[in-house]
Specification:
By secondary structure, this protein is α/β, with parallel strands linked by helices. 47% of the residues lie in helices and 15% in strands. It contains twelve helices and ten strands. Helix 3 packs across helix 4 and helix 5 runs parallel beside helix 10.
């Protein structure tokens, strides 16, 4: 079952226009942001001023022209209100932690973050300009998963770039290409609603009378253990192969054992 939603920013949570009406055409701007120079800039290798200098030399534009084009692009940043609202609703309804993972410079993120009415909807933010890695580098994904203490199979990742989605999928993450907002929102609700219903189905329909034995803690009645099995591998649930006694092999305190009622409300 899914506990974490990892989101890209550009063309997922906000949109922008490459049309600058400056000496830097939209075509050349796209070439610039696809260049090695831009990739290094987004990993924090050098300052914005140095980036403009390098791009000017490589694409035969003045530093002033490139700086002006960047300012115009930034003025075009617009929040995708539908996606943002859907993320807020999904977070509440499915008890998700919501993570931002984006290829972006520090100056750009400083502006983008002001677009969100409530930034607390994001539990953690990972920006390439701070981390020093960019998608689709698998190391970036592994870094994020490690920091948020989440297994790949518990996470859903949304990005507008197929290469980034493919990289996430190779690690076992459920990943979606965001081609348009309505379809992506519908797909997220479908996936997460199924996950929630499956969790409840186990509680209501699985054979009852299970018990669990925790190291150094006495045996207790426990149907919740079935949910934990599904958490570990949601694709292998089969009530025909479960034994009526399930044993944990981790020493945990009784405080770590949630009540079934709280699960039913999730």
């Amino acid at each position: 079952m899914y506990t974490t939603l990892i989101l890209d920013l550009g063309d997922v949570l906000f949109h922008w226009s490459p049309v600058t009406q400056t000496a830097v055409s939209a075509k050349n701007l796209k070439k610039m942001i696809s260049s090695t120079i831009w990739s290094e800039y987004e990993r924090g290798y050098f300052s914005e001023e140095r980036c403009c200098e390098k791009l000017g030399h490589a694409f035969n534009n003045s530093v002033g022209e490139i700086r002006k084009a960047m300012e115009v692009v930034r003025s075009s940043f617009r929040l995708d209100q539908s996606m943002y609202s859907a993320v807020c609703d999904l977070k509440r309804a499915c008890n998700l932690q919501v993570i931002v993972m984006s290829n972006m410079s520090v100056p750009d993120y400083a502006l983008v973050r002001t677009l969100f009415p409530d930034q607390t909807v994001f539990d953690e933010v990972f920006i390439s300009g701070v981390i020093g890695m960019r998608k689709p580098d698998e190391r970036f994904f592994n870094h994020v998963l490690e920091k948020i203490h989440t297994l790949p199979q518990r996470a859903i990742f949304v990005d507008d770039k197929l290469a980034n989605v493919t990289s996430a999928q190779s690690l076992g993450i459920k990943a979606l290409v965001c081609q348009n907002t309505p379809d992506t929102i519908h797909e997220l609700w479908t996936i997460l609603d199924h996950s929630a219903k499956l969790r409840k189905q186990i509680i209501y329909t699985a054979p009852k009378g299970f018990s669990s034995t925790v190291a150094e803690v006495k045996s207790f009645d426990d149907d919740w253990s079935l949910v934990r099995i599904l958490d570990m591998d949601q694709d292998t649930y089969d009530d025909n192969v479960l034994d009526s006694t399930l044993e944990y092999h981790l020493a945990i305190s009784s405080e770590d054992l949630p009540l079934q009622d709280s699960l039913l409300e999730a």
